[in-house]
Amino acid sequence: MPIATIPSRRLSAAALAAVGALALFAAAPASLRAEVAQENEADLKPIPSMAVPLAADTLINAVAQVGDRLVGAGAWGHVLVSADQGNTWTQVKTPVNVTLTSIRFVDDKTGFITGHDATILKTTDGGSTWKLVQYDPQAETPLFDVFMKDANSGFAVGAYSLVKVTADGGETWTTRTIGDLDMHMNALARAKDGKVWIAGEAGHVFVTDAEMSAVQDIETPYSGSFWNVLALDDGSVLVMGLRGNVWRTADNGATWSQSPTGTTASLQAGRQLRDGSVMLVGLEGAVLVSKDRGVTFTQVKRAERTALATLFERGDGKVLLFGEGGVEGALTN
Question: Are 272 and 230 in contact (CB under 8 A)?
């Protein structure tokens, strides 16, 4: 959504009052102005996450495996680690208390987390400790996902086409401008051919190379927002989003077909399981399974209706569900 602008030069009473307040502030003693500036600067500093007993019961948006451990990230800057395939979880400290949106590992040691306030966290010890490498609360723009081509280069995407690029292993990030795009970039996935697909709003899907050197804007037959994208082992790509919409392409976006889901719940995430089947999760506790690479889906009956944000398949074949209530339980695939 474009930032609202003032349509004319006429100012409202509230705007005039604000101008007057600014004038009084400008006339205030230098010591007072310095004190206010320090308070404002303090407001922009990151606040570390707080250790809470029930962190595993709060929103978890993303989960990744690193070595023999699982690492999850979610609300209030919470990062959780499990050494027993999700049976128990331990909260670890982070330098922020913002909502965290995605987590990806480059190897068994190095990983990245994105979040609100243009936040990016980095770990070099498998998720036990995290440091802040990108943070810009003044931008008021969240980052939603991150991709690393290798240990050195990668990019993160977010709202209003915000793209942050790194070439030094995530120690520093620079803003990349992508033409005149002003679309939210909500999630990404690397396809079998190496291209990176990005789910966007208003029915848009973006495709880029691993260097983010050129971005192609692909319009789909659907005009609603896509919340996530899933690249499958046969080269096909699924995008999922509002009102249970799933669209599939097997020819790099030249043509699309809608996959029937039988639900109007917004779909948040998906994963291809080891047996080749596809599982999607979403709001209202929705769980969908496809045995034909996303051409059709059937619903899994569940009593729980809390919103689901992501899923993970364990080594024993059980699928862990995560979402609004944290660790939501497991399904047998």
Answer: yes
| Bridge partners, residue 196, by sequence | 190, 208
Helix (H) or strand (E) holding 30: helix 30-43
**Coil/strand/helix, residue 19:** helix
Give me the tens of pLDDT residue by residue for the chain, a chain 333 residues long: 322 333 333 333 333 333 343 334 445 566 554 554 455 555 689 999 999 999 999 999 999 999 999 999 999 999 999 999 999 999 999 999 999 999 999 999 999 999 999 999 999 999 999 999 999 999 999 999 999 999 999 999 999 999 999 999 999 999 998 877 788 999 999 999 999 999 999 999 999 999 898 899 998 999 999 999 999 999 999 999 999 999 999 999 999 999 999 999 999 999 999 999 999 999 999 999 999 999 999 999 888 899 999 999 999 999 999 999 999 989 987
d(CA 110, CA 223): 37
* pTM, 2 dp: 0.87
Residue 321: which of 290, 293, 283, 264 has the closest Cα?
283
Residue entry with tokens 């695939």: 333
* CA angle, 299 then 320 then 306, to 5°: 60
Assign 58 to helix, strand or coil.
coil
Query: Which residues face 231 on adjacent strands?
Result: 237
Q: How many CB atoms lie within 10 A of CB 15?
A: 11
Residue 164: inside a domain, yes or no?
A: no
Q: How far apart are CA 288 and CA 92, in angstroms?
A: 32
Q: What are phi and psi of 22, to 5 degrees?
A: -65, -40
Give domain status of residue 28, yes or no: yes
Within a domain: residue 19?
Answer: yes
Tell which residue, 158, 147, 50, has the closest CA to residue 101.
Answer: 158
Residues 6 or more apart whose CB falls under 8 angstroms from that of 16 comprise none
Domain that holds residue 26: 13-43
**How many domains does the structure of the chain reveal?**
1
Instruction: Determine, yes or no, domain membership for 53.
Output: no
Place of tokens 């802040």: 132
